[in-house]
Design goal:
Layout: H1 2-44, H2 50-76, H3 111-129, H4 134-143, H5 147-163
Length: 164
């Protein structure tokens, strides 16, 4: 068992290293871009005096504060045409009711089909038990992950209709 898990963990480790390497490259590119932008802005603003910075800060505060106050006052104004209206959600006419009753399948599995399914399940079980067939069993299960569950569902469906 450890041998199969070890193989999977090696694949996962390779994938994780590749993902981490890719994220590291993105982070490095982002940091380089930030450094270039900061350096460019620093060059453009080196000649600013303290008074220039105070004027820029004051202008920024006035415009953002004024915009915020405008939006707040506008939202409380009595103009209902520009307000967001709530429209109730209606149920479409062509809806399949799922909560009432699950869909009944009208097809009935014949006895020969059921025997083929049970013989395939026995074959898969014998593959899983033998050391030489374990590799084939694992490859079938990994290629078709829901196959054994589907066989169980079909068998249960057959037995439930056999009782009826």
């Amino acid at each position: 068992m450890k041998f199969t898990f070890k193989r999977n963990s090696e694949k996962n480790n390779v994938m994780e290293r590749a993902k981490n390497n890719l994220w590291q490259k993105f982070e490095q590119a982002n940091l380089r871009l930030q450094y270039k932008c900061a350096h460019w802005l620093e060059l453009k603003t080196t000649h600013f005096t303290r008074l220039n910075w105070i004027v820029i800060l004051f202008t920024f505060i006035v415009f953002t504060g004024g915009g915020s106050i405008y939006l707040i006052v506008k939202s409380f104004s009595g103009n209902p045409t520009k307000n967001i209206t709530v429209i109730p959600i209606t149920k479409p006419a062509n809806v399949i009711p799922l909560k009432e009753k699950p869909l009944e399948l009208s097809t009935i599995i014949s006895k020969t089909e059921f025997e083929k399914i049970t013989s395939f399940r026995k074959y898969m079980d014998s593959l899983g038990r033998s050391p030489t067939g374990k590799k084939t069993y694992d490859s079938i299960v990994s290629d078709r992950p829901g196959l054994l569950d589907s066989l169980t569902i079909i068998e249960n469906y057959y037995y439930s209709h056999l009782k009826n």
